Amino acid sequence: MNTILTVAKKELLDLFRDRRTVMIGLLMMPLLVPALLLGMSTLAEKKQRTQLESTLALPVIGAERAPNLVAFLKSQNIEPKAPPRDANAAVRDQTYDAVLRIPETFPTQWRNSEPAVVEIIYDSSRQDSQIPVERIHATLNAYAGQLGALRVLQRGVDPNIASPVAVAQRDAATPESKRGMVLGLMLPYLLIISSFLGGAYLVIDVTAGERERQSLEPLLATPAARAAIMSGKILAACGFAMLSLVLILTAFKLTLMFAPGGMRSLTISTQVIAQLLLVLLPMVLIGTTLLTLISASVKSVKEAQSYMSLLMLLPMLPTIMLMVNPVKQQIWQFAVPFLAQNQMILKLLRSEPIGADVWGVYLGCGLGLGLVLWVLAARLYHQEKLAISG
What we know:
Blueprint lengths: L1 H16 L1 H35 L2 E6 L5 H9 L2 E4 L5 H6 L5 E4 L4 H6 L7 E4 L7 H25 L20 H9 L3 H11 L2 H13 L3 H5 L5 H32 L12 H28 L3 H5 L2 H6 L2 H9 L14 H11 L6 H26 L9
Parallel strand pairs: 1-2, 1-3
Antiparallel strand pairs: 3-4
Helix pairs in contact: 1-11, 2-11, 7-16, 8-11, 8-12, 9-11, 9-12, 11-12, 11-17, 12-16, 12-17
C-alpha cells in the first residue's frame, strides 16, 4: 500500500509541476461544460420564445377567397403576405417557414357548408419550422372550431352535443423530473466523457510517455512490485479525474445559481453532486485502467493518442441509442458500461429513488469491469518488453 501511495504522490507532483497542463486539464471542462449547456439552453429558450411571441409572416395563396380567415389570422399575430412565385422553393430555401394555400374550391365548399380545404406547405425536414407550423395549425383549428360552433347554433343545436367526451390531462411529472429532463439533454454525455477520459493525459504520460523517455525501466527495476507501481499510477490518474469532476459539478452548480431566466430554476443539490461522483467513480476506474492497458501495449505516446478518437465515441453510444430508440429502464441496463452511467445520471437528475438492487448491479458490474481491465494491464506490466523503448 505504501508503494501505491508513494507512486501516486510522485506522479501527481510531476504533473502539477506542469502548470499549463494542469490548467487545461482541470479548468477547461469546468469552464466549457457550464458555458456549453447554458449557452445552448439560452439560445433554444430565446428562439422558442421569439417564434411563439413574434409576428409570424405567412404567405397566403388565394387570400381573396377567404377574407374572414385572413382577418382571423391577423388577429392571432399572423401577418398574411403576398405569395411567392414558387411556394415549394420558398419553403425549401427557408425564405418562409410555411405557406398557406387556399384552393379555388374553398368558396364553393364554404357556401355549401362542406369542409373547406386549406393547405399548409412546409418542409418537415426543417426542425426550426416546427413551432411556426404548429402555430398555424392551432390557429386554423381554432378558426374551424369557432365556425363549426356557429353553424350548429344557427340550426338550434347545442355545440356541446358534438363533443360527447371531454378529455382532460394530468401531468404526473414532478418539478424535479422536469428539471432533470432539461439537464439530461447534454449533461450525462459530458459527465461520462469527462470521467472516462479525465485522466487520459496522465495515464498515457506515466506509461507510454515514460517508456518513450526511457524512465520507466529504472522504476520497474526497483524491488517494488510492478502491480503496485501500476496501481499507483492508476490511483494518481483516478484522483486527477475525480478532482476535475468535482470542479465541473461545482462550476455547473454555481453557474445555475446565477443563470438568467428560466435556467435559474434548474438546481443541483450538494447531495446529488455527491451521488453523481459515486456514480462516475466506476467510469473513472474503467477509463484509467483501459488507457493503462492501451498505453502498456503500444510503443509511443503518439500511438496511444491515436486511440483517443475511438474512445471519445464510446460515451456517445447510449445517448444516440436512447434518442433513436427510447426504452424503459430495466435492471440489465445498469450492467452495461456507458448506458448504465447514462441511466443512473438521469435518475439522479430527475430525483428518482434508486433501489439497493440497482446500486448493487451498477457498482458490482462497473467496479468488476475495472478490476478485469486492471488484471489485464498488470499482466502487460509484468512483461519485460514493457521497459524497452521502441
